[in-house]
């Protein structure tokens, strides 16, 4: 029965086409870690924003960095490439160092991820802007080890297109490190991501082994200019 349901879902997804409007698109990228004692409040705020703005063009992603793993707890969602991505932002922001929790909004500003006031102000500010790129996704197929789809981007102001598979929520019991003996909830965890500079094509994203059939997955894709500023975004549930 489960296989039949999965086949039916895959067929429905492959027939569907998804496209964003040219309305505002707000992308919030939280660089976080289960090994950081200051991160749980930021994780909670990101989850609150996701739920509060679920019917609007607000897209949240949790990028788990790996540089806190040395303190005794290896974050199961951490990835060295996410730390490298954060360093790209540091270069654009002229920052000498990277930190957690860092919340980057539309690639244009950053602040401590638990700062509710700054997050609310940023959401109000970017709600007034229009997207300069429109992303379309179609033919989504979820296989056992990968998600495949076709895409296209309208507009010529982008430099990079990012495609991220995110897991809606996971709760982890942490036994070591700064958050030992705590149960941590993370939201829209980036499980894998690929980037391209092409305006259209076919993408295949590998599904990590730690993802289960019970996990609720989404595809979040967004365009950025040469300065990493967001120019459009789209989210599709898988």
TrEMBL record:
Keywords: Signal
Signal sequence interval, chain numbering: 1-19
InterPro entries the UniProt entry points to: DUF1223, Thioredoxin-like_sf
Species assigned in the record: Aquimarina gracilis
Listed name of the protein: DUF1223 domain-containing protein
Domain of life: Bacteria
UniProt cross-references to Pfam families, sorted A to Z: DUF1223 (PF06764)
């Amino acid at each position: 029965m489960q296989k039949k349901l999965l086949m039916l879902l895959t067929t429905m997804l492959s027939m569907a086409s998804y496209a964003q409007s040219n309305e505002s698109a707000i992308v919030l990228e939280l660089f976080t870690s289960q090994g950081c004692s200051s991160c749980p409040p930021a994780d909670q705020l990101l989850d609150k924003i996701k739920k509060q703005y679920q019917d609007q063009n607000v897209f949240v992603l949790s990028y788990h960095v790996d540089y806190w793993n040395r303190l005794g707890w290896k974050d199961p969602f951490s990835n060295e490439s996410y730390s490298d991505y954060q360093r790209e932002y540091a270069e654009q922001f002229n920052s000498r160092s990277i930190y957690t929790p860092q919340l980057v909004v539309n690639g244009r500003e950053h602040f401590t991820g638990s700062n509710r006031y700054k997050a609310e102000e940023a959401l109000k500010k970017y709600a007034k802007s229009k997207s300069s790129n429109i992303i379309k996704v179609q033919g989504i197929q979820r296989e056992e080890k990968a998600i495949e789809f076709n895409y296209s981007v309208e507009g010529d102001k982008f430099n990079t297109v990012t495609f991220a598979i995110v897991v809606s929520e996971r709760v982890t019991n942490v036994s070591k490190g700064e958050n030992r003996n705590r149960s941590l909830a993370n939201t829209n965890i980036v499980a894998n991501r690929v980037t391209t500079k092409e305006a259209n094509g076919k993408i295949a994203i590998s599904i990590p082994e730690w993802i289960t059939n019970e996990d609720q997955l989404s595809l979040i894709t967004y365009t950025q200019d040469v300065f990493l500023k967001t120019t459009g975004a789209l989210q599709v549930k898988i």
